[in-house]
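haha ok so turns out i had the wrong file open the whole time. this is the CORRECT one, sorry everyone. sequence first:
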Amino acid sequence: MKLNKYSGRITEPKSQGASQAMLLGVGLSEEDLSKPQVGISSVWYEGNTCNMHLLNLFEAVKEGVRQVGLVPFRFNTIGVSDGISMGTRGMSFSLQSRDLIADSIETVMSAQWYDANISIPGCDKNVSFKLH
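then structure:
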């Protein structure tokens, strides 16, 4: 089974030279272009105690992906804390943020042709988007 089934669509054909140049520009080697690419998504941000530690987890996951011979690419999405916005109009954004999170992960994964995704949630409100 070909592990770079999706990323191979931009890393293998000569017609995708611009895509390959962009990937080489972010530090990939020619050898890396033949490896599967893994998108690592997270709701990391500094404004919430549930999410602020996720940057360290991001780095650990990224290193683990690299150690097994895959190419990791880290990206963020939004995170909303109803714990902070509790009792205010801001609390109404907690549930709709789930769809935004799921949509943003799907958008990056599809547009960048990543072969796999590892998602790192932070709070109960942003765990369920991983289950869509």
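The chain is about 40% helix and 15% strand.
again sry for the mixup
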